[in-house]
Design a protein that fits this description.
Elements: E1 4-5, E2 8-9, H1 18-37, E3 41-48, E4 54-60, E5 63-64, H2 65-71, E6 76-77
Parallel strand pairs: 1-4
Antiparallel strand pairs: 2-6, 3-4, 4-5
Length: about 90
């Protein structure tokens, strides 16, 4: 079972928009690289979202995964409010 990263919205892998899909693949690659090189991974503030999926704040070697993805332009802050339409390719 996977853990969704708390506090962010990322581009969708399952989309017909080629540019958004490319950004989603880039976000996944960054995540896999950070996790693959990690000496320590902590999942804190574990909870369930409105669809009963597991959410958590993921910290890799003292750095927030959410903050890292936001800094790289591969995620936006999100805390359950209605999501605006995102142009991931601008």
């Amino acid at each position: 079972m996977g853990v969704r990263v708390f506090g962010i919205d990322t581009p969708e892998l399952r989309t017909k928009n080629a540019c958004e899909k490319k950004k989603a693949e880039e976000a996944r690659a960054v995540l896999m690289t950070l996790l693959g090189k990690a000496e320590r991974v902590d999942i804190v503030n574990v909870q369930k979202d409105k669809y009963f999926r597991i959410l958590g704040t993921i910290v890799v070697d003292g750095r927030s995964i959410a903050d890292e993805l936001i800094k790289r332009g591969l995620a936006y802050p999100y805390h359950g409010e209605k999501k605006p339409k995102r142009n991931w390719c601008k």
